[in-house]
Design goal:
- This protein is mostly helical.
- It has two domains: about 15-60, no CATH class; about 60-100.
- About 70% of the residues lie in helices and about 5% in strands.
- The protein has helices at about 1-5, 15-35, 50-55, 60-100, and strands at about 35-40, 45.
- A hairpin with a 6-residue loop joins β1 and β2 (about 45).
- It is rod-shaped and about 85 Å long.
C-alpha cells in the first residue's frame, strides 16, 4: 500500500491537513487487516491503538518516507542544476572566445 501512496511524492508540498489525511489513510489499512480483539479482563471488543498497529504491522512512517524522498529529490535537482549551469556557461565562454 505504501508504494501506491508514494508514487510521485518527490514533487509534493505537504500541508498539515494533507499529512493528517495521509496518516489516517495509512492507519486504515492495518486496522482492516488486524481486526478488533477481545480484552482479557473485560471481554469487550476493542480496536488496536496506533502504537499496537505499528508494532504488529512494522511499517515505516509514511510522512517520514515522503519527506526523505523530497529531500533526496531536492539534492538531485541541485546537482543536476550545477551540471547544466556549468555546461551552459562553458559553451557561452567558448562562443565568446570564438567570436573574438
Amino acid at each position: 500500500m505504501i508504494l501506491t501512496v508514494l508514487y510521485g511524492c518527490e514533487t509534493w508540498s505537504l500541508t498539515l491537513g494533507q499529512e493528517h489525511r495521509l496518516r489516517m489513510s495509512h492507519n486504515k489499512v492495518p486496522r482492516e487487516i488486524f481486526v478488533p480483539e477481545r480484552g482479557e479482563v473485560t471481554g469487550e471488543w476493542r480496536r488496536p491503538y496506533n502504537e499496537g498497529l505499528y508494532y504488529m504491522y512494522s511499517s515505516p512512517n509514511v510522512i517520514r518516507v515522503i519527506k526523505s524522498r523530497i529531500m533526496r529529490w531536492a539534492g538531485h535537482m541541485k546537482r543536476v542544476g550545477e551540471v547544466h549551469t556549468g555546461l551552459w556557461l562553458g559553451k557561452l565562454k567558448e562562443r565568446a572566445n570564438w567570436k573574438s
